[in-house]
Design goal:
single chain, 151 residues, mainly beta, four-stranded antiparallel β-sheet, Immunoglobulin-like
Length: 151
Amino acid sequence: VSGMPGTAIKNFSCVIYNVSLMNCTWSAGRDAPGDTQYFLYWKNSREEEETQCELYVKDENERHKGCQFQNVTIKDTTTYFMVNGSSKNSLIRFYDEYIKLYEIGKLTAPLNITANCTGEPRGCVIEWQEPLTSHMENKDCFQYEIDIKNK
């Protein structure tokens, strides 16, 4: 592996929210020189070309510390992420990771929740629609939990 030890990013993590938005964040390598700039590349499947982040999140020194993605499509395949860096003073080691996007998705809340309480033996009927998602074909995969607080 080329590049000085301790210069690669650390604490890399990504999360998908609101169906198709993805946020990835990282922190600078412990021994990375102050002028180090990092660049994230990713590819969603083997067939796709590797593309660079289009919207970087920057720290107070304009160093890239994250990336925001829009219109992310979750596929069954593993997604490849790679962050490399450049510096005038030293060679920066790259970091890479394979992530299954469906494992990092945060589901939205169920939609159109209604509660109908009649006071009859049936008590209350609570209904809802499943959360929005871009990738789950089988709606039977959802599990729900109802937490009823008596007022």
